[in-house]
Amino acid sequence: MGLTANPKIKRALVSVSNKDGIIEFCTHLIQEHKVEIISTGGTLNTLLDAGLSAIDISKFTGFPEMMDGRVKTLHPKVHGGILARRDIDQTVMQENDIKGIDLVVVNLYPFVETISKPDTTLEEAIENIDIGGPSMLRSAAKNNKYVTVVVDPNDYELVLNELKVNKGCISEKDRSDLAAKAFTHTAAYDTAISNYLSAAQNNEFPDNIFSKYQLKEILRYGENPHQKAAFYVDPIESNNTGVSNSSQLQGKQLSYNNIADTDAAFECVKAFEEPACVIVKHANPCGIATAKNIIEAYEKAFSSDPTSAFGGIIALNRELDQEVADIIVNNQFVEVIIAPGVTDEALAITKTKENIRILDANELGLPAEGFKFLSVTDGMLVQETDNGVVARDDLKIVSKRVPSEAEIQNCLFAWKVCKFVKSNAIVYTRENQTIGIGAGQMSRIDSARIAASKATERGFKTEGCAMASDAFFPFRDGIDAAAEIGITSIIQPGGSMRDDEVIQAADEANIAMLFTGMRHFRH
Question: Strand, helix or coil at 464?
C-alpha cells in the first residue's frame, strides 16, 4: 500500500486538561475535514455537551476505564494506532484490528499548577502526575513521519490552516516541529515532577539537576555585541517577584545587562520596609536611601552619586506615581525603572521619554527564595539564595565605646546595603543614605579608600558616619583609613585571626564596632 508524503488526517485522539479552544478546534476537524474523534473523560463530556460527535476511548479499545481514570489509554489499540508505520505495519494492524490514529491532541494533568498552590499535599501532587498523556505524546512525536501531535492550544490555528491549504494533510516540516515541541513539553513536565519529589524528600541537592526554564525572548546581544543571548524564565509561579515576571509597560527591549542590573536593584530594594530607592549601575548599587516618602528616598539616592546614576537602573519599593515619575524624568537619564505598581498618570509622564523601560512588578513580594546558579566551564555551581538577616539583637558590641541608638540604626542600614555590593565591599552611610561605596576591589583597604574618596568628592560630611564591611578586616589598615575621615561606627562580621588588632584600632580612634557573625560575599 503506497504512502503519500503528507498522510491525510482521518482519525484524532483528543484528551486535554486545558480545554481552551478545543470545542472550536474539534468542530472544524469534524465539519470541514470529516475527522473521527476519539476522546476520554472530561474532554469527551465537553465535546458531547457541545453537540459534537466523539467516540468514547473505552468503546474504541473495548476495554473500560478503571482505577479512577488511571488506566484508560494504556492499550495496544491506542499506542498501536499511534505508533504504526503505515507503510510496513498494515498486516499487523489488520490482524489485531488496530485503526490508525493520525492526530494526537493531548495536554497533561496540571501538575505544575497543582504544586504551585501552597496547601497542596503530596498525595494531591501524585494524583496529578499524568502517565497516559506523556506516553501518547511520546508515541506520536516519535512517529511524526505519519502522525501529527499537538500539545499547545496556540497551535490549533496552525493545524487548521495546514489542513485547509493541504487538503486534510499536515506538512512534514510542521509534523516535525510539533513533535519537537511535544518532546520539550514532556521533558519539562518530567523535570517539574523530579524537582518536586526531590524537594519533598528534603533532597536539597539531588543527584541530577534538570533545566526547568522556558525561553521568554531572544535578546539583541549579551554583555557585549559579539555575544548572542536569550532570557529564560521559571514557568512555575512562586512568591518571588521581579524582572522575570514583571510587565514591561513601555520602552525599548530589555538588554542582557538591563535584566541583570534590574534584578540586582529590585532584590536590594525589597530589603527595606521604609520607602526606599535603589540605583544600580553595572551590577553594583551606586545610590541607596530610605525616607519618609518615595520622592525623598529617590532624591537622596540620586544625590549619593549623580555621576554613576547616569544611565542607571532605578528600583522603588513603592508605586511609581505621577510626581515621582516627573522628578525622575526631568532629573536624569535612566535605562529602567521598576516598581510594584505604576499609575496611568506616571506612564503619561514617562512616555515623553519613550526609550525608558518601565517595568511593573505588580507587587513588591518577598526577597528571592530558592537557589542561585552560576555556570562554569562544563559545570554549574548551586547555592541557597543569601537571605541571611541580622537584627539588632544579633549584634555584638566589641569596642570599648558603646554605640548610640542612632549609630546602631545607621550601621544596620549600611549592613543591608553592603549585602548587595560586590565583594570586597565597603559602604559609608549617613542618616539612611549611602554617601560612599567601594565595590569589587581585590583588597579591602582599596574599597575603603574608594568609598571615602567618593564621599569627599561629592561634599558629604563623613564625620559621624557609619561604615559596613561585607567580610572581616584582615588588618587594621581599613579601620585606620575610616578613622582618618571621621567614621564613628563600624559594622562587620568579625572572625579574623587579627580581630584583637582590629578592635584595638577602633578603640584607639574611639570608634564603636559591632560584629554580626555573618558575612555577605557577593560575586
Answer: coil
* C-alpha cell at position 262: 534590574
In the numeric block, the cell 476519539 is attached to 38
Note if 142 is an active site residue.
yes
Q: Mean pLDDT, to the nearest integer, of 124-132?
A: 76
Burial label, 322 (beta-carbon count in 10 A; 0-12, 13-18, 19+): middle
Q: What is the mean pLDDT of the chain?
A: 88
Q: Could you tell me the three cell numbers for 50?
A: 457541545
For residue 4, name the pLDDT band (cuts at 50, 70, 90).
Answer: very low
Q: Each residue of 61-105: pLDDT tens digit?
A: 766 666 665 666 667 778 778 888 888 877 877 878 778 889 999
Sign, Cα dihedral of 290, 291, 296, 300 = negative
Question: Which one of 28, 282, 351, 353 is the catalytic residue?
Answer: 282
Read off the C-alpha cell for 513: 564596632
Q: What's 245-360's CATH class?
A: alpha beta
Give the DSSP letter of residue 154: G
Give every CB contact of residue 285 below 8 A, 6+ residues apart in sequence.
264, 265, 268, 278, 279, 417, 420, 421, 434, 437
Q: Which of 304, 351, 343 is nearest to 324 (CA)?
A: 343
11-200 and 245-360 agree in CATH topology: no
Catalytic pick from 8, 75, 142, 351? 142
Q: Which CATH class is domain 11-200?
A: alpha beta
Of 245, 249, 295, give the one whose Cα is nearest residue 266: 245
99 near 78, Cβ under 8 Å? no
CATH 3.90.79.10: does it fit domain 392-515? no
Query: Tens digit of pLDDT for each residue in 404-463?
Result: 999 999 999 999 999 999 999 999 999 999 999 999 999 999 999 999 999 999 999 999
Cell, residue 474: 584582615
Cβ contact 480:505 at 8 Å: yes
Q: Hey, what long-range contacts does 333-339 have (CB within 8 A, 24 or more apart)?
A: 335/258, 335/261, 335/311, 336/251, 336/254, 336/258, 336/261, 336/262, 337/313, 338/242, 338/243, 338/246, 338/262, 338/265, 338/266, 338/313, 338/314, 339/315
Domain ranges (residues) in the chain: 11-200, 245-360, 392-515
Write out pLDDT tens, residues 283-329.
999 999 999 999 999 999 999 999 999 999 999 999 999 999 999 99
Q: How far apart are the first and last CA of the chain?
A: 65
